[in-house]
Amino acid sequence: MLNSGAAKKVTVYVMEGEQYHGTAVYMAVVEFLFYKGISDATVTRGIAGFGADHKLHTTRLLELADKMPVKVEFIETAEKVEEVLPKLTEIAKGGLIEIQDTTVIRGGVAATKPAEPPALKRQGKAKMMRILIGEQDEWRGKPLHLALVECLRANDIAGVTVYRGILGYGANRRMHKDSALHLSHDAPILLSVVDTEEKLRAFFPVLDQMVQQGLVALSDVDIIKYTHDYRRQERRAEERK
């Protein structure tokens, strides 16, 4: 948050169609500023203008609709501007960057809600269970991967993520490929489950009933978890006592 006093106003002029590593230059600029902690930035799109080529660009010319001027503006301290300027120059190398002295009369207003506490970092040991099945596999008329997710949740397993493969083969040595020209509806499905070894091994009898053909692998993992709502969780734990 900016305080009142001397500051710098930075304006970056680029063309809408310009790209930086596959992303629109103006979006790359905004994302860079965001992750560098710049207080705020504003993007405006021109409706008419011309550049060094002296060609008139206007939104009324459909063929030039992606060649309109775009302006990114932000205000920051001189130190912060000096810090981000080298990378900013690299991203907007085809445009123009203007820096002006300015004065902040009134600094940003802090949000009324209290600031979040710093994230709590938890580390420990756990197990990861990987369940590899086919997309066509079913259990009691329901897709097996969906039934497994519901059953894992019902058994209070910490979390599961389902991935759909685009290429692979299994025990039958048949190649399964996700392609518009190769209409395979039996793509590989991978469920990645993380919890304590005790809870995962307790789930094995359920797997024996539900998975008729597939692969289950259990491996050691190091857990690193960041959470902001740990104080709320601690209060709930106290209430349950």
Write a brief caption for the model:
25% of the residues lie in helices and 39% in strands. With 241 residues, it is α+β, with helices and mostly antiparallel strands. It has two domains: 5-104, Alpha-Beta Plaits; 120-240, Alpha-Beta Plaits.
Describe the structure.
The protein is an alpha+beta fold and 241 residues long. The protein has 2 domains: 5-104, Alpha-Beta Plaits (2-Layer Sandwich); 120-240, Alpha-Beta Plaits (2-Layer Sandwich), CATH 3.30.70.120. The chain contains 6 helices and 16 strands. It has a 4-stranded antiparallel beta sheet with strand order 4-7-1-8, covered by helices on one side. Strands 12-15-9-16 form a 4-stranded antiparallel beta sheet. α1 packs antiparallel against α2. The longest helix has 14 residues, at 78-91. The two termini are 41 Å apart.
Question: How is the topology of this model organized?
Answer:
Blueprint: E1 5-15, E2 19-20, E3 23-24, H1 25-35, E4 42-45, E5 48-50, E6 56-58, E7 69-76, H2 78-91, E8 96-104, E9 120-134, E10 138-139, E11 142-143, H3 144-154, E12 159-164, E13 167-169, E14 175-177, E15 188-195, H4 197-202, H5 204-210, E16 215-227, H6 230-240
Antiparallel strand pairs: 1-7, 1-8, 2-3, 4-7, 5-6, 9-15, 9-16, 10-11, 12-15, 13-14
Helix pairs in contact: 1-2
